[in-house]
Amino acid sequence: MKKLILIFILITLIIISLYNITLAKGEMQIIANKSVIEQNEEVDVSINILNTKIAALTIELYWDSSKLEYISGPENSNNLNNRILYTWVNENAENIDELNIESFKFKALQESVTSIAVTGEFYNSDGEKIEIESNNIEIKIGKENEQIESIDNKSENISSDNADLAILRLNHEGITPEFSKYIKEYYFVTDKDIQNLEITAVPQNPKANLTITGNNNLKMGENTIEIKIESQDKTKTSTYKIYLTKTINLEAANANLETLAVREAALEPEFDSNMTQYKVEIANDISNIDILAIPQKENAKVNILGNEEMKIGDNKIEINVLAENGTTHKKYEMLVHRRNVEEEIKNQEEERNQAERLSTILENNQTKASLNNENSKMFIIIILISLCVIAIIIAIYKIKTKKINNK
User: Fold this and answer.
1) In degrees rounded to 5, what are phi and psi of residue 37?
2) Residue 206's domain spans which residues?
3) What are phi and psi of 395, to 5 degrees?
């Protein structure tokens, strides 16, 4: 009897191993050819899928477009508002043990530490979804441990008409947004105890002329601090402004947005109340866009300018927020690109190609899922047959044992 039970257990284990429908697991590696790059330098990011059998995938890459500019990618990739969608299907419907995806190329825009995140869905040839964890890679833009003094060493490569800042720092935390030489307006709210604000401002060309005004003897309410740069050859000037509010009621000076969204379009990058500049791309047949802008404080006021009768090409939209105190303000900006006819045709073709690739994946998955259901049914039938066989063997065994005992 014990032998029969042991045989049954072994048969069951063999069947389970043959018809195992549990999810497979794999590993995703994200590799950059450089971990530290300089401004305007390019970096190649490749993705490897290891330790699994894969037949199809869809992956998405996300990054901060204010720090990295997307240059190019594999043939089956599509850049949609700070999101790259890439699909791959093995036309032979066979598993591949290791997949190396061609490089995605990015260009550094500003000195910072940034990351590229990758998520996706992965399938084997049986239609089983493969468990692969999302991953990301960190890239440093600018020399490690860069000090202000190093700006002097770069002066030979900076043109004489450069009037941009290289560094902007305060002796207190809280300035928004994060510094970029392209962003000219910043915001800072502080309490009544601060009388003067120490500012470290270094121009990209050390020989440019720099002056700072408005950072001493701060008054209650809003103060405007100006950092003016005149280029070495005196042909260009630029002005960076810090709007500082000194108050005893920090809540009433809140001019942040809680929500910022555009109907039928996506912000690039994703909305963050501390970020003030965004990009949006819209279709050729859209001239007016609906913008949802909700302030963090209920009694703050929002005014939107430039979202109607937009021209083909680039358009600038301002979302101005006035805090409850009626003084503190903050301006969010959108650069909206309205596609021309050629761009619209190309975009529609890319969307159709992407839809076809995704449709192929879904159809293959449905077919494979159907096969899996059949396998599951077969698995159950075999188990039932095995149980019946064991039951018959046990019954025969008992009958024979009874006859022997009767004799």
Assistant:
1) -135, 165
2) 150-248
3) -65, -45
214-to-110, 225, 242 alpha-carbon distances in Å? 27, 4, 9
Structure tokens at 289: 């866009």
Domain boundary among 208, 229, 248: 248
Task: Find the CATH number of the domain harbouring 332.
Answer: 2.60.40
Give strand pairing partners of 131.
25
Cβ-contact 63, 268 below 8 angstroms:
no
Instruction: Tell me how many degrees the CA angle 254-257-261 measures, rounded to the nearest 5.
Output: 175
Q: What are φ and ψ of residue 192, in 5° steps? A: -75, -10
Task: Please give the mean pLDDT across all residues of the chain.
Answer: 83
* 364 domain residue, yes or no: no
Which of 222, 248, 274 finishes a domain? 248
352 occurs within a structural domain: no
What does the DSSP 8-state code read for residue 223?
Answer: E
d(CA 88, CA 76): 7
Regarding whether 242 and 265 lie in a shared domain, the answer is no
Distance CA 66, CA 264 (A): 22
Q: Which are the contacts of 302, defined by CB distance < 8 A and separation ≥ 6?
A: 257, 293, 294, 295, 319, 320, 321, 322
Residue 369 lies in a domain: no
SS3 263: coil
Burial of 392 (0-12, 13-18, 19+ CB in 10 A): exposed
* Residues constituting the chain: 407
**pTM > 0.70:** no
Q: Is 355 among the domain residues?
A: no
> If we measure between CA atoms, which residue out of 302, 284, 306 comes closest to residue 294?
302
- In this prediction, residues 282-297 reach a mean pLDDT of 94
* 5-19, 65-79, 326-340 — most confident range: 326-340
pLDDT at 152 over 60: no
Give the pLDDT score at 23.
41
Instruction: Give the model's pLDDT for residue 264.
Output: 82
Residue with the bigger pLDDT between 150 and 308: it is: 308
What one-letter code names the amino acid at 234?
Answer: K
Handedness of CA 36, 38, 39, 42 (dihedral sign): negative
DSSP per-residue letters across 271-323? --TT--EEEEEE-TT-----EEEEESSTT-EEEEES-SSPPSEEEEEEEEEE-
Does residue 44 sit in the same domain as residue 131? yes
Statement: residue 59 has pLDDT above 50: yes
3-class state of residue 241 by DSSP: strand
